[in-house]
Prior knowledge:
four-stranded parallel β-sheet, 10 helices, alpha/beta, TIM Barrel, 14% strand, three-stranded parallel β-sheet
Amino acid sequence: MAPTRAAVLAAFAQHRCSAILRTSDRDVVRPALEAAIAGGFKIVEVTMTTPDCLEHIRALSERHGLLVGAGTVLTVDEAKEAMAAGARFLVSPCTDAQIITFCRQHDLVSVPGTLTPTEMMTAHRAGADIVKLFPGPANGPDFVKAVRGPLPFLRIFPTSGVTEENCDQWLAAGAFGVGFVASLFDADDLRLHRFDVIRARASRMVAKVQAFARPAASGTGAVAVTS
Length: 227
């Protein structure tokens, strides 16, 4: 049985990080994803622009203990395709109320892209579960901290500008979680098929996030999960 929306949100609150693959090289998709998973990532996102993305989502979604979602979902038709392939959360670079509504109707977690507090509130009021911070501002952690001052209920999830070195700063600022993209799947490592390097980096990233992660009762409000 596929995990419910509440279960998916609980998984995000527990693991606090995702591996996000964006590449045009068909040959590296699966080994790169496998490297991230072997390194400890329990949540992976395959962008719709990745070659054979639906096939990879379908195969990975059958694994116990692994949460798989689709990224760069721009239309309801793409949302339907991703859901049919087994995606349990849908991520977009922008906010589309129709996609958010589709997620609500089909018990999927919606993660629309936002940048400003106004965009975040618009997405939240439309029913978004998590708001993706994209693109990441130069002063990212400070920005998240400032936004969550008056809007502590927002689950802000930065995916741009998050690195192994600064991921704890984002979390300390109140981010609900963080997504690793190019900082995990380094372009040169992909090109040279250095999947062992990606795996080692993934392991360090997950360890650093988990070392920082606190229970919901910590008082930060960053990991509380409600409907």
